[in-house]
Structures are given as structure tokens and as C-alpha cells.
Amino acid sequence: xxxxxxxxxxxxxxxxxxxxxxxxxxxxxxxxxxxxxxxxxxxxxxxxxxxxxxxxxxxxxxxxxxxxxxxxxxxxxxxxxxxxxxxxxxxxxxxxxxxxxxxxxxxxxxxxxxxxxxxxxxxxxxxxxxxxxxxxxxxxxxxxxxxxxxxxxxxxxxxxxxxxxxxxxxxxxxxxxxxxxxxxxxxxxxxxxxxxx
Length: 197
Prior knowledge:
This protein is an alpha/beta fold. It has six helices and seven strands; from the N terminus they run E-H-E-H-E-H-E-H-E-H-E-E-H. Helix 1 (14-24) runs parallel beside helix 6 (166-189) and helix 5 (122-130) packs across helix 6 (166-189). The protein starts with a strand and ends in an 8-residue tail after the last helix.
């Protein structure tokens, strides 16, 4: 599959940076077509500028039709796979309808545990810390209209230690996210993962 990627990210975009680095380093055969953020001051838009990748801010301050505006950009840049990487908003159903089984998300836990509305960022790691679980991890899944409910594509486990804090667990999981997202895209490209099952 020829990967023409459209990224959605709200803040730092560390997963976006890792994927783009893998592309420019010839590890991943793909094209970063556009980076969209809902946050005008996000670091990911600065990264896009520095990397000469088209970039746009789409939020309630500049459009009432967020989903349609995103689709306009995705169409104009010929995107065929949408990558959520720390995008902190619920995706408009119109985007999901136009890109069925072509929107991926990274979740910082082992779904189906610790998913759903309100389960993002530090909240996820705190929930794991508060549990009796001895492991956490990261999950790449397809996006549907429900939070963290789409088909799981890949997962990777990491230990959760008794002395872990939210920060130490988050750091361990993030390192795995960076590896897992790139590997998942490579597996899609090489036909090991069929998005249409």
C-alpha cells in the first residue's frame, strides 16, 4: 500500500516526529502529505514548517465546519491514511465516513482496558497506577465513532512497577509508542496488516 499520510496532532507531536524521521531516514516508505493541528501554538506545526510539510490549524476559531475543512485539506493533498498522534478532539464522523478503516490512533494503554471518553494522557496512566495491573503498554487501533473502540491492529506491553509514578510509566509507554506506530505502518505497507478485515 502506498502510504500518503495526513497527521492530526494537538500539541508536541512526538509520534509525528518519529514517523517523519523514519520516512526521511528511508526506514518507512511513505509520504507525509499534511500536518493538521487544532492548536495554533502547537509544537507540531512548528515541526511541520521546519520539515517543509504543509501545515494547517483547524479549530472552532477559524471554521464552523471542522470535519469538512479537514476533508478539504486531506483531499487536496491526496491523503489515503489519517494518523491521529496525540489529537485531543473527537474526530468528525464525516472524516470517518470518507476514510473507512483508514484512520489510525495510538492509545497509551492496552485496550480495551483504560479506554473511552476522558481516558487520555495522564488520566490513562493514573488509572493503570491505581489498578493491580503489572503491565501497561500501547495500542494502535482503527478509529470509529466511539472513543477507543475500533479494531485493535497492534499492541506492545511494558511492565508497570510498584514504584512507578504517572510520569515514569508515561515515559516508558511513550518510548514504545514511537517504535510501535512506525512498525505498524511498515506492516500495513508490506501487507502483513489488512485494514479491511
